[in-house]
Amino acid sequence: MRPGIHPSYVPVVFRDKSAGFAFLTRSTITSDKTVTWEDGATYPVVDVEVSSASHPLWTGQQRVLDTAGRVEKFRRRYGGH
Length: 81
Hints:
This protein has two helices and four strands. With about 80 residues, the protein is an alpha+beta fold.
């Protein structure tokens, strides 16, 4: 690789707050927030909304939407128009 043209590839912690799950990997992403990891070292942390710990494909749990309630609410609101 040519020096000076690539971003730095450093250890980063990705944290899924909704599932209480975090993992350490390497990435070029940067963050101002830091966290102390299990090994005692401090790493930049990136908060994500979905990870393998919270995604329905990986967990096998699907969210059930109340479609009947939504339809009734729509009909109450716009049914007479």
